[in-house]
Predict the 3D structure of the following.
Amino acid sequence: MTTQRLVHMANQVAAFFASYPEAEAVEGTANHLKSFWDPRMRREIETHLAEKAGAGLSHVALEAVKRIAQKDADKKSA
């Protein structure tokens, strides 16, 4: 799956939560990505965040990916 497709999919999930308050939208998007995306998909979108600053991601999707990346980094360092 291409990074461009993953960005599109993350933005679609974030758009679903657009009517929620921002904090809930970010949390809902992050939970969806963590629960339903294959680990390879999450690694690819995290790599996109690291290498391209999440270019193309909506604000909510970007914050959700940052949250997932931080939690994954915390797990690795623990």
About this structure: The chain has one domain: 3-73. DSSP finds four helices and no strands in the chain.
